[in-house]
Design a protein that fits this description.
The complex is a heterodimer. Chain A is mainly beta. Chain A has strands spanning 4-7, 10-13, 19-25, 31-37, 43-50, 53-57, 64-70, 73-78, 87-94, 103-104, 108-112. Chain B has strands at 4-7, 10-14, 19-25, 32-37, 43-49, 52-56, 59-64, 69-74, 83-90, 97-99, 103-108. Chain B is globular. Classes of the chains: A mainly beta, B mainly beta.
């Protein structure tokens, strides 16, 4: 069973389009994260939700909007895609109270043309 | 802001060699994470440690809180250990992780 899953795995789209990436975890964790890994392979946090509430919101363009319908899901919607949005986006989850290990999804490779 | 430095940036070894990857950070922390990113891109959490040493198979992680330094060791390295190893620490008292730039390990047969 996959612990943290993301869809789609690959996303190729044109500049200006709007797209969504979905994340689901079946670990019963209360906290979920979105990370961006750029072309230099550097990981950086974008957002974190705890029990469906936003707790970390880094300096990210407001074209990026996370949505957490429930504890097990954290989706990322991106409006008006730009070339610089091309990256790998990783979802992760953890149990916040226990300051536990973060479990990562397989990543979504986004290419904006 | 916590700064995370990893060394070396790249490491090439022969199968069987003992590997050490280092991580230093600038601000005191509650715990440090070691992650492994496979050539295919997937990320796996290897260790989370707040003191002393942890061992999992051929992997050993140590941390010295006073010196703000951690090491990841791989004994009897194998080509399948080839990956990028990333150190991460929390920013301030939050769960926000700050990542090192990673160490790319290549183990040749």
């Amino acid at each position: 069973d996959t612990a943290v899953s993301q869809t789609p795995k690959y996303l190729v789209t044109q500049m200006g389009n709007d797209k969504s990436i979905k994340c689901e975890q079946n670990l019963g964790h209360d906290t979920m994260y979105w990370y961006k890994q750029d072309s230099k392979k550097f990981l950086k946090i974008m957002f974190s939700y705890n029990n469906k509430e936003l707790i970390i919101n880094e300096t990210v363009p407001n074209r990026f909007s996370p949505k957490s319908p429930d504890k097990a899901h954290l989706n990322l919607h991106i409006n008006s895609l730009e070339l610089g949005d091309s990256a790998v986006y990783f979802c992760a989850s953890s149990q916040l109270e226990k300051k536990g290990t973060q479990y990562f999804g397989p990543g979504t490779r986004l290419l904006v043309l | 802001k916590n700064e995370v430095e990893q060394s070396p940036q790249n490491l090439t070894a022969q199968e069987g060699e003992f590997i050490t990857i280092n991580c230093s950070y600038s601000v005191g922390i509650s715990a440090l994470h070691w992650l492994q990113q496979h050539p295919g891109g997937g990320i796996v959490s290897l260790f989370m440690l707040s003191s002393g040493k942890k061992k999992h198979g051929r992997l050993i992680a140590t941390i010295n809180i006073q010196e703000k330094h951690s090491s990841l060791h791989i004994t009897a390295s194998h080509p399948r250990d080839s990956a990028v190893y990333i150190c991460a620490v929390p920013q301030g008292g939050s769960e926000k992780l700050v990542f090192g730039k990673g160490t790319k390990l290549t183990v040749n047969p």
